[in-house]
C-alpha cells in the first residue's frame, strides 16, 4: 500500500508518517524543503523519539520523498497511491491544491480505485476546505469523475510535537499521546481501515472537543505566557495565575461542549485534566511562540477562540476567560510572526476596536467584543516584555 503525505514537518514525520508506516504503507512525503526531501530519499527511514522518561525510540522505515515543486513527480506519486494525507498548515492547503488536482487528473485516467484524501490540520473541515481548493483546479467533467472516486473525509489530529532541535534533521521527538479521528461516513466503501485511526460516524463532536480543549487551552497558555515573559508552555504553566487562567478557559469551553454535545460532565473534566497534564510534560520544551503562531488564524471566527465563545454565548453562557485569551492574542507582539506583526500594525493604524472587528468578526456592539476590549485594556498594563 502506498500513501502520499504532504508536509514532512513535525506532525508529518512525528505522527502521520509514523502511523502510516506502522500500518504497512510505503510513505512518500511531499515537501518544499529540499534538504529534508533529499535526506528522506537518501536514508528511507528516520527516528521518532517519545518525550518520556525512557525516551523510547522507533525507527520509521519504508519512506521516501519528492519535492513539491516537481509537479510531474507529485502527480505520478498520487496516481499510484492508495491514500493522500496532508499536514502542511491549513493556510498552505491552497498552495498544494494545484498539484493534488494534477495528480487526481492523472489518476482518474490510470486507475478506478477509490482515493481518500485526508487533511490532518488543526481546523474544522480541513479536508472539505482542501476539496474546494482542489476542485477549483479541475474541469467540470473531471469533478464529476472525481465525485465517484476521490473522497475527502474530515479528520481531527491530536499529538503535541514541538519545534525540533536535534543534530539529525530527520529525528523528531513527540509526546506519547496521540489521537487521529476520521469521519468514516465520508470514506470510500471497501477502503481498508488504517490501523491506529479511530473512525467515527460523526466527526463534529470530536473535532470541536479537541480544538476547543487542546488548542484553545494551549494557545491561551501561549499568549498569556508570552505576555508574562515566559519562553515555553512548561514555564507558563508553572505560573499559578496562568495555570488557573487556562483551567478557567477550559471550564468555559467544557461547559459549552457538555451542553452542545451532551458529553458526560465528569468524563469531560477528566479529558480536560489530562490535557492540562500534557501541557506540562517535563520532557518537552514547547516554545510559546510556536503554540501562539499565526494569531490571525487563531482569532478567526471559525477557530479555537471565537467559535467556542460564540457557541457558549448562544447558549447564554458568559466567556470572560475566552475574551481574555482573545485580548492576549491581540497583544502577542512577536515581530518574527508575520500575522502578529500585521495585528500590531493594524492596531497602531486603526485602533483596537477596528482590530477586534477585523480579526474576530465580532461587531463593536457585540457583548464579547466589549469584553475583549476591556480585557485588552487591563492586560496591556501587565505586559512584561
Ligand atoms: N505540531 C503539532 O503539535 C501539531 C500540528 N498540527 C497541525 O499539523 C499541521 C502541520 O504542523 P507542523 O507539522 O507543526 O508544522 P511544520 O512546519 O513542522 O510542518 C509543515 C511542513 O509543511 C511543509 N510545506 C510548507 N509548504 C508546503 C508546500 N507548498 N508543499 C509541501 N510541503 C509544504 C514545510 O516545509 C514543513 O516541512 C498544521 O496544520 C498544524 O496545525 C496538528 C496537531 C499537532
Ligand atoms: O498548529 P497550530 O494550529 O498553529 O497550533 C498549535 C497547536 O497545535 C498543537 O501543536 C497540537 O494540537 C498544539 O500544540 C497547539 O495547540
From TrEMBL:
InterPro entries the record matches: 6-PGluconate_DH-like_C_sf (IPR008927), 6PGD_dom2 (IPR013328), Mannitol_1_phos_5_DH (IPR023028), Mannitol_DH (IPR000669), Mannitol_DH_C (IPR013118), Mannitol_DH_CS (IPR023027), Mannitol_DH_N (IPR013131), NAD(P)-bd_dom_sf (IPR036291)
Keyword Transport among UniProt keywords: no
Pfam families on file: Mannitol_dh (PF01232), Mannitol_dh_C (PF08125)
Biological process per Gene Ontology, one example term: mannitol catabolic process
Domain Mannitol dehydrogenase C-terminal residues, every copy: 202-379
Cellular compartments per GO CC: cytosol
The EC number(s) this enzyme carries: 1.1.1.17
Catalytic activity: D-mannitol 1-phosphate + NAD(+) = beta-D-fructose 6-phosphate + NADH + H(+)
Gene3D superfamilies: N-(1-d-carboxylethyl)-l-norvaline Dehydrogenase, domain 2 (1.10.1040.10), NAD(P)-binding Rossmann-like Domain (3.40.50.720)
Family: Belongs to the mannitol dehydrogenase family.
Name the record gives this protein: Mannitol-1-phosphate 5-dehydrogenase
Gene source species: Paenibacillus validus
Amino acid at each position: 500500500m502506498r500513501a502520499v503525505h504532504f508536509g514532512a514537518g513535525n506532525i508529518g514525520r512525528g505522527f502521520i508518517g509514523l502511523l502510516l508506516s506502522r500500518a504497512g504503507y510505503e510513505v512518500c512525503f511531499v515537501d518544499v524543503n529540499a534538504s529534508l526531501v533529499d535526506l528522506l530519499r537518501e536514508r528511507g527511514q528516520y527516528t521518532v523519539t517519545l518525550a518520556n522518561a525512557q525516551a523510547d525510540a522507533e525507527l520509521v522505515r519504508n519512506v521516501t520523498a519528492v519535492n513539491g515543486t516537481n509537479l510531474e513527480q507529485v502527480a505520478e506519486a498520487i496516481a499510484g497511491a492508495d491514500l493522500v494525507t496532508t499536514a502542511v498548515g491549513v493556510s498552505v492547503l491552497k498552495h498544494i491544491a494545484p498539484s493534488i488536482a494534477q495528480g487526481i487528473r492523472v489518476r482518474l485516467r490510470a486507475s478506478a480505485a477509490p482515493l481518500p484524501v485526508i487533511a490532518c490540520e488543526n481546523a474544522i473541515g480541513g479536508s472539505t476546505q482542501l476539496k474546494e481548493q482542489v476542485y477549483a483546479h479541475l474541469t467540470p467533467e473531471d469533478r464529476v469523475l472525481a465525485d465517484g472516486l476521490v473522497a475527502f473525509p474530515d479528520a481531527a489530529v491530536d499529538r503535541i510535537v514541538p519545534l525540533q532541535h536535534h543534530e539529525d534533521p530527520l529525528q523528531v521527538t513527540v509526546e506519547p499521546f496521540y489521537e487521529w479521528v476520521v469521519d468514516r461516513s465520508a470514506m470510500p466503501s471497501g477502503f481498508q481501515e488504517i490501523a491506529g485511526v479511530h473512525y467515527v460516524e460523526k466527526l463534529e463532536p470530536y473535532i470541536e472537543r479537541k480544538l476547543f480543549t487542546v488548542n484553545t487551552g494551549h494557545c491561551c497558555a501561549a499568549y498569556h505566557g508570552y505576555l508574562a515573559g515566559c519562553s515555553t508552555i512548561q514555564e507558563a504553566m508553572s505560573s499559578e495565575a496562568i495555570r488557573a487562567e487556562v483551567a478557567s478557559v477550559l471550564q468555559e469551553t467544557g461547559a459549552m461542549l457538555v451542553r452542545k454535545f451532551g458529553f458526560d460532565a465528569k468524563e469531560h473534566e477528566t479529558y480536560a485534566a489530562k490535557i492540562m497534564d500534557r501541557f506540562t510534560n517535563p520532557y518537552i520544551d514547547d516554545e510559546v511562540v510556536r503554540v501562539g503562531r499565526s494569531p490571525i488564524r487563531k482569532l478567526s471566527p471559525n477557530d479555537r477562540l471565537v467559535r467556542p465563545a460564540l457557541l457558549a454565548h448562544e447558549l447564554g453562557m458568559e466567556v470572560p476567560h475566552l475574551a481574555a485569551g482573545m485580548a492576549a492574542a491581540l497583544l502577542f507582539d512577536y515581530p518574527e510572526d508575520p500575522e502578529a506583526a500585521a495585528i500590531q500594525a493594524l492596531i497602531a493604524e486603526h485602533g483596537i476596536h477596528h482590530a477586534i472587528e477585523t480579526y474576530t468578526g465580532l461587531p463593536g456592539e457585540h457583548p464579547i467584543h466589549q469584553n475583549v476590549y476591556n480585557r485588552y485594556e487591563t492586560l496591556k498594563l501587565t505586559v512584561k516584555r
